[in-house]
Amino acid sequence: MPIAPEFRKRYPPHWQELRAQIMVRAGGCCERCGKPDRARVEVIWDGSGRWRLSTAAGVWRDRNQQPAAAPNPLKTRSTLVVLALCHWPDRSPEACDPDGLFLLCQGCHQWIDRSLHIASYRRTCRRRRERHQVTFAHLGLELPAPEEPLE
What we know:
By secondary structure, this protein is an alpha+beta fold. The chain is built from three helices and seven strands; from the N terminus they run H-E-E-E-E-E-H-H-E-E.
């Protein structure tokens, strides 16, 4: 995943070399679930993390790379795996110790950062409510401003 221009100065100048080093360590696969980089996989969107390579009738795997039961084929979809570095447990871009960087697919990265995404979503909803920007135009409704601040 490309680094946003406004954050580039927070990363070390040798970032690309560090990323290549982590890619070699991970063997070109997600360090959590084992999905290979730039591979097309079938995934099921039920929260189980089950996946398999699309190129063959492969074995379904769970988030821990263990064999898993096959899902209903109507509930799967194909996606391209794109691996990115995840800072963990220190999430700041300045934290560049190789022991704190992990190569993850987009699904595992979202899972690891879920608390950040939930907090961001709540802040966005609160701001929109405060500015009366939350509307349900397709229903012809508009939400009133909240009486008290949301937590």
